[in-house]
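Project standup — Tuesday

K.O.: blocked on the structure for the chain from last sprint. Re-posting the sequence here as requested.
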Amino acid sequence: MPESLRPEIICAILVSENTPGGNHMPKTERKILDQLIKYRYWLFLLAATALAWLARKGGMDHSSPDMNVFLVPWYEQIVENGGFRALAQGVGDYNVLYQTLICLFSYIPLGGMSPMYLYKAVSIFFDFLLALVCGYVAAREKGEALPGKTFCTAYALVLMIPTVILNSSVWGQCDSMYTSVCILALYLLYRQRYPASFALLGIAFGLKLQTVFILPVYLYFYVSRKNFSLGYFLLTLGVFWATGIPAYLAGRPLTAVFDIYAYQTTEYPDMISNALSIWYFYFPQYKYMRQAAIMLTAFLLGLYLFWLLNHGGKLKETPLSFFALAAWSAWTCLLFLPAMHDRYGYLLDALLVLLCFLDSRYVRYAAPQILCSGVVYTGYLYVYMWNEKMPYATPIAAAIASLVSFGMWLHMGLTVLPGFVEEAAA
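H.V.: unblocked you, prediction finished:
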């Protein structure tokens, strides 16, 4: 028998060809696979970006009540009044920085296309900016290079938060704008880059009054660090005032940016505007309870400061303690202030997702809270259909969601926040 046909040699050949560790991949295919693995982070970012866009594309044609009643009519009024010249009178109840953006829209030829798509395109752009900011902060504080697994995952998850998708692509609203600036301002405060942080805070105020939700964090760390002055708020005030320059040049009063927010605080005389709020369970009469709600919110935020002062007055300098305090502050304002709207939980949702990458235990807060936010979003975007079928479905669902949200806020305040204080030495 020839040597090559001996049974033991044949068996050895068959075994080697079917061994799992055997290399049967063509060299070209192996090189391609190696390159895909090498550039996996960039490829993941491209895939996440494409999926995030496709997730928003389906809602682009939906015209929300806000779009029909406010945003598109504001655009049309600005066009009729001559673009930037319309700033002399002011259009709508958003501040000058956003009005200026609408004026810029008015010079873009639409060719019969609805201005709704311009609004949504800008909001979606800021969705991606928000995702980049959150990814950068998470990766930087985990000590990872960019792009890395933390950056990529945070970027993708922020883009895929359901309320973030709905806010820009379906609603056509702009909450990603001020939220991205707020989170960057907070991060710079944490990094003790005070001029940049306070300047960005002014820009955030120029975009949205709800920037006030993060002001307690500045106060907490002012007391804890004792290394920056409240005088920096003059920089914030100056930058905020400067956002109104286009309106001043058009002839508006030099107090225009302040006047708009003064008007906003009394524009909607309701304790609740379909928001997550404790006021579903109490006397929701704006006339009588507005002042009490504001004072209660100030008391709760101040209570933590008082507790801090009585336990050494020093906060732990960790990104976790910093952003958790920011989330809790925003959560307190959302639940207890009067006249809160459904979208005002946007900043909180983004902060809680960011916290998940600093400590995975925060998923227990982020996931239920985002679901609660979704309830009130749907209650607005789909309110008419809900009311036709079950007239009380919307407030009942929002009240249940508010109760869940309150429970999580309370749990975080009682079990997590005390751990952020460095106890004074005996």
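K.O.: great, moving the ticket to review. Confidence is low (pLDDT under 50) at residues 13-18. The longest strand covers residues 272-273.
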